[in-house]
């Protein structure tokens, strides 16, 4: 009985070390920024618009549904493109502010 308890304790300890131990440095992939997310979202919206057009031309969607979904996707695309433009403009003007000494705040 004592051996079984000891074995269970070692297995439990081993499992906890395995689960909660993190090596010194993990590679988590490229950093996800708002701009990269928006670019991915833009591509997904464009793909959805292409699929929607295909489905409509194949006769699988009534005209009212097609127009409604198309308008919704176009509105979302416009919002995403607008935010991308704003973020790119901010990123482009950031080096100029730093050179002028206005970008570093403490």
Q: Can you tell me about this structure?
A:
With 106 residues, the chain is an all-alpha fold. The chain has a domain of 71 residues. Helix content is 75%, strand content 0%. The protein is built from three helices and no strands. α2 packs antiparallel against α3. It is flat and about 75 Å long.
What's the short story on this structure?
By secondary structure, the chain is an all-alpha fold. 75% of the residues lie in helices and 0% in strands.
Computed structural class: mainly alpha
Rg estimate, integer Å: 26 Å
Biggest pleated-sheet summary: none
Order of helices and strands: HHH
List the helices and strands and how they pair.
Elements: H1 2-20, H2 34-57, H3 63-99
Tags for this model:
106 residues; mainly alpha; 0% strand
